[in-house]
Amino acid sequence: MGKKILLEHINVPGIKSLDVYRQNGGYASVEKALKTMAPDVIVEEVKKSGLRGRGGAGFPTGMKWSFLAKPEGVERYLVVNADESEPGTFKDRYLMEKIPHILIEGMITSSFALGAKTSCIYIRGEYFYVSRILEAAIEEAYAAGLLGKNILGTNFSHDIFVQVGAGAYICGEETALLESLEGKRGNPRIKPPFPAVAGLYGCPTVVNNVETIASVPYIVMNGGDDYAKIGIGRSTGTKLISASGHINKPGVYEIEMGITVEDFIYSEEYCGGILNGKKLKAVVAGGSSVPILPADLILKTEKGEPRLMSYESLSDGGFATGTMLGSGGFMVYDETTSIVKNLYTFARFYHHESCGQCSPCREGTGWMEKILHRIVEGHGKHGDTDLLWDIQRKIEGNTICPLGDAAAWPVASAIRHFRAEFEEYINHPERIKEFKHLQELVS
Amino acid sequence: MSKEIKFNEETIALVNKIIKRYPEGKQKSALLPVLHIAQAEFDGWLSPETMEYVASLLRIKPVEVFEVASFYSMYNLKPVGKCILEVCRTSSCWSRGSEDIIKHLEKKLGIKVGETSKDGMFTIKSVECLGSCGGAPMLQCGASFHENLTLEKVDNIVENYRVEGKRKSYTDQDFKNTL
């Protein structure tokens, strides 16, 4: 069994409640931080820990914190990104639903380090029932003197509220999230200025993912060096992986970074192998935006080394033969899966979710969906594969926010690794119904 | 059907409580939560009248409400059934059979995706990833997530909602978590 930091107590009966959570060591980091540590010292510990943003980008958290501007007399905010909308990702929902206080604890401790008097959880609207769980936990924390004025008798006062979104993938992008929090459409802002300088209401703001903030209590209690010993290389600590698709045991797993992908897919401790004893065809390892890899390249790097569950190993080989850890949304596809049809579901998703601000993304995602739709319906034209390739190239890097890149990468990687399958669809439309893996798809 | 578009005192108090979270003058931040409440209170959708009412409550222009309401997928700008069956169709749900679920619902209810049954009870919607990939295939109705669906399970879910006959909203306090 690997080291557990976030899910260690997940199966303790009643862990959702403040009392049971405290009996299991909960809120000790608030006590330690507020009474014995200076804010800058906590930031230093987080830097030493090597903790990287768990939402997908993997940016070093301590560094993000140290960029926060601190002008006199201006409010600062911590905003927790619980918008979790990247297809394949459901870890934050699990964490918040099962053990909400770990997030609240992390928010109080982190806010103390950042000097924020108010923090907020922005949660996607579809998770409404989870927002109720969080609100109940926050109420308990107020009643216990862990929130509000003079927390635990110290000079530090802090308020937390929960803000519910209303259905928009783009609001997971931090500046779109801030726009939404201000009651506007979720259109990403042009950066700079970065939120660390001008964020919520124009004030310095740190936006961090749920899992990132939930990791802070451990770092405060055990020190950054101790955290950095867990994991491998620059992939320190543990990571929550949302496993889904054609596997025997879908669910959320906390892994110590550095275990092999093969172990993760096939061992009983994690995914438990491929459903119905079928063969593995492909994996999307870090949420829908990251490149899809065929079985041989997800299990081993191009050099033939075992692929590991870490930021570095998953991206080994660049986009030519590698992928990314991303949000840890690990989707597994068996030998019967149509890669082209699966890509169509992604293209439809990105078209639906484009905010429409930048024309390459607004128009390009629509064109890609349209072309893929005609291909899967048996009306693909010769040259469509090249056309798709051309469109994705023209979206990538040409938009305000990363949604454009996120829409381009799945298309590029599916063509890169499974080009023959696209051509099969286009050249033999009359056989689409015969394709075993397509039978259920053609009505 | 058309009742007066006005919150009762209890709801007004809730709206004021939400506004208090934000700094002075930033009451527009309450727009998304207040639209959720309005949608739940006024027949599950946001009519132009409802949006104008919300604008007046938050002291913003009606157009600021329209532009937000039309951006987010959870707000309905047309009348809908009491129960909106939102079936996820993105990758993991698709690979575990969401198309069969949608076809089954269409046949069972005699309507297509996007339509509402004649009795006004059900609307079928196909939606993008709801963060429930581990329980694929899944559908959401109001606040409830229904996971690991089979056609038989879908039949039971539909029957239960039909018997209950109530409107389901995201904001339902008495939701049952069906995980």
- What CATH first level of the largest domain in chain A would be assigned? Alpha Beta
Which structural class matches the secondary elements of chain A? alpha/beta
Largest sheet of chain A: 5 strands, mixed
Number of strands of chain A: 11
Quickly count the domains of chain B: 2
| Proportion of strand residues of chain B | 5-15%
Number of helices of chain A: 19
Which runs of chain B of at least 5 residues are low in confidence (pLDDT < 50)?
174-179
CATH domain topology of the largest domain in chain B:
Glutaredoxin
Helix content of chain B: 40-55%
Instruction: Compute the number of helices of chain B.
Output: 7
What oligomeric arrangement do these chains adopt? heterodimer
Largest interface: A-B, 61 and 51 residues
Specify Rg of chain B, calculated over alpha carbons.
Answer: 17 Å
Q: Report on the biggest sheet of chain B.
A: 4 strands, mixed
Taken from the alpha-carbon principal axes, the silhouette of chain B is: elongated
From the coordinates shown, what is the CATH architecture of the largest domain in chain B?
3-Layer(aba) Sandwich
The helix-strand sequence of chain A is HHHHEHHEHEHEHHHEEEEHEEHHHEHHHH
Structural class of chain B: alpha+beta
Low-confidence parts of chain A, pLDDT < 50 over ≥5 residues?
436-443
